[in-house]
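Re: duplicated header lines in exported structure tokens

Our pipeline writes sequence and tokens for each protein into one text file. With two proteins the header for the second block appears twice in some exports. Here is an export where it did not happen, for reference. First protein block:
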Amino acid sequence: MKYSYVQLSHLPDEILMIIFIKLHNISLLSSLIGVNKRLNKIAHDSIFTNRLTLLRFLPVPVIDFYALARYSVYPLPDSIVDRFCLQILLEIHNKIEWLNVEPFSMERILLATNYPNLSGLGLYNIQVENTVHLFSVSSFYSKTNLPSNEDIQKTFRDFKDKQIISCIDYFQKRKHSRCHIYSYPYQLKHYEDITNNFPGRLFKCVRAVGLYDEYPFEHEFLLRITQSFPLLEKLTVINQQRQNNKRFRKSKNENEDLLIVKYPHLIQLNLSEAHKDYHEQFLFDTKTCLPNDVCIHLNYRLVNKVTRNFRRNTIRSNCAKISYVLFYNRSKFPEHLKDYFSHAHIF
């Protein structure tokens, strides 16, 4: 068999884009920008430049085999931060819509250039002693000794044409904090790591949402999410805490039943890292109304409990609407499973 040798430069732009999309955009930008005009043009495409995560997530070893993977945040190597601050950010600054940063390199990155189209800022591992000088205030009043929303508003007082929204969370179990800062109206198509501290408002552009918290998501909170994101298509729920009010089917006004949460545009739901209560929350037709042809990721062991070995009738209505089921922690499927998910491809 005869083999041909093809250099990267011989491939058409369309093929290069397909290859590059599979790569981490920070490594891609660091490798391609400044090489030649052709690769430079490709690297400047908005698909690689509109959202930058200038930090590293490294896995934390866990003893429990069944425990969820945990990650710690670390800064990028100095050589990469230097390259971004001295060249790359200056070239693509007007295309950046979202920045994720950590305290050790945050100041250099934020002061490297102007970001005229920045809509959101994710701050990881906030430590007041290392970041207080970036906020133009002398005191902090939040219970966890973090900058308050008022402090952050003062920091962005020069953004006169945009309303700045901020949301600060501290996670006791993981011993770290996170701050969302973005301009409103919000123009991005995704909103990640929403907690119970979510300030609300209407987000017409968002199609993908991620929920994460160390406190439970109650029925009323999920109803607020659907109201804030009316065109929601993809939803991921990460929460290991059981719901407090799941046994109560009455709202705070005891004369009213809880409203059923509806997701009319949902095409993908991921509950693989969610407590059993959220499998109930989304599968019970008395709590949630799923649309037809939704793809859903579930924990098999938990679903088996919730459905009582796939025989519980209150879940059949939503399960019949599912087109694809991807099970995690799966075991041997019972013969009647296909009858329960009557229209679904099961994996």
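Second protein block, exported in the same file:
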Amino acid sequence: MSLKSLVRILPEPVKDVLKAARDNTRLGMVRMFSSNGFMASLYYCLISREFDREHRAVLLGRLQFARLMQSKGENDAFLRRNVHRLEKGLIMRPRRSTFAEDYIGPTVRCFADATHAGVVTGQQRWANDVLTDYFSAVQSTPRIDSARREFSGTQRADDPNRCVPYPHSDLPECPVSYEQLMVLFRRRRSVRWYQDKPVSNELIEQAVRAATLAPSACNRQPFRFYVSNDAAKAADIAQCAGGTGGFHDNLPCVIAVVGDLGAYPEARDRHVIYIDGSLAAMQLMLAFESLGLSTCPINWPDIEEAERRLAKKLELAYHERTVMLLAVGYADPTGGIPFSDKKTEQDLIVFK
């Protein structure tokens, strides 16, 4: 007889005593090991292995970033970050006569590698235009002049629609009032019951186009949307999460928001994939709502068995981490929606 089978046949009062003893022991250990950083590290080395996947994923992400830097090709995250840094330097008040000396050389080399690949992307046009403005704005120094000479060999002709910083006054007028926006927010509910109706790929692409406009740290956008737009595949993916029991077979489409730790050379940025991925996911859900589609964000806790299952199904590298799952579809008008009372602004604001 297994231990679990033995526990099942125990009287409830005995189970309660054993559970209380187990919980008190765990809490006592947490109290002891939380006394300082060294003890906390010891706890997660000897007592709990719950952070093992994150630790290894961060290290493998750093290796992936290093491999991309050493290879002759475009390092998407590196180029995006540094071009964004150049833009911030160009809009600074007052603008310095020289800036970015410590990274302009590697940035130009990364741009040159991307250009030599022969495929012109929006990212390369953006980099070209910002670098052009940068070299027009800064004064001469040995490092800047060296990078300028290298850039001149790869610089493209100006496009009429240049991708460079612009004044706030150039933005379109906002046609949405606060009240209209609140209607959209109130309509965006976590929907678990859907019509038996397919979701078109065109609508998914349209919603993702809106999600790409979400803010992202240094504009890296270190995430992808893995779309399972088939009821059987969607159910198979949704079952990997722990909170979909009873309704996963009802989901016509599931999207996995996946972050890439290979976008960062340092462990300090390991949480950015969750921040940026969540910002994009929220914008994605609101976009779907505006297109007549409902959504349900599905929690993705760090559980090793579930991580392995989903990584295998989506063919993810170890340094790619799932941020959350999203169900998408046409809501069943008769399906129930939890009321989910929300905290008020008084509950959440702390003025200091």
